[in-house]
Amino acid sequence: MAFHTIRQQFFPFTPTPSITIRAVDSATVYAVTGSIAYQVFTPSPELGLMPTMSIPQPLRDAFQSHTEQFVFYNAENEPIGWSIGQQREADTFIMLWTGILPAYQHQGIYSAFLRRLLDYLRTLGYARVTSNHMVNNRAVLIAKLKAGFIATGMSLDERWGAILWLTHHLDDTVEEAFRRAFSLEKYRT
What is the largest CA-CA distance in the chain? Predict the structure, then answer.
């Protein structure tokens, strides 16, 4: 599939006049996360959680799937956030890690990005988008629920604690089948 050609129709994207979101390569997004993630998230050891281990390069290279990496830049071209995701199954994209510096939160940047990303992933042909979050990450949970994600699972992980799994169905047939299987009435907004 010509991801690059389709991606150019959606990104770069300017959700607010002073913020631009660009698709970037892995090296760029990991350089950004390495330099600003500590300003967004409390380090795992400070939360009393198990420290994460780095993944050896050969294992990273062996995992071949569709990936997307974005960096959010302010008007001075300084990175203020990122988003990383990948194809998890043939029809499923998982949003793995997103963060925006506190000074830029609650300005609608993430919600605008999320709408744009969902449109892009729908255009690529994905049927569903998943994500998982610590249960006390209210800001992202609220943003995702407002965007149409629904809670589809929960897990306990020794590295992250209690995790809530969210799913957004991009395909109406898949969404209807899910609702019928679980007897869920569609939420009216």
Answer: 49
Instruction: Tell me the three-class secondary structure of 27-79, residue by residue.
Output: HHHHHHHHHHHHHHCCCHHHHCCCCCCCCCHHHHHHCCCCEEEEEEECCCCCE
Identify which of 117, 84, 77 has the alpha carbon closest to the alpha carbon of residue 99: 84
* The two three-digit tokens of residue 52, written as one number: 């994460």
* 80, 33 Cβ separation under 8 angstroms: no
Predicted TM-score of the model (pTM): 0.77
Place of tokens 């062996």: 62
CA angle 47, 107, 94 (to 5 degrees): 55
Distance separating alpha carbons of residues 151 and 163, to the nearest angstrom: 11
3-class state of residue 115 by DSSP: helix
Q: How do residues 140-169 score in pLDDT, each as one tens digit?
A: 999 999 999 999 999 998 888 899 999 999
Which residues neighbour 161 within 8 Å (Cβ) at sequence distance 6 or greater?
47, 49, 134, 135
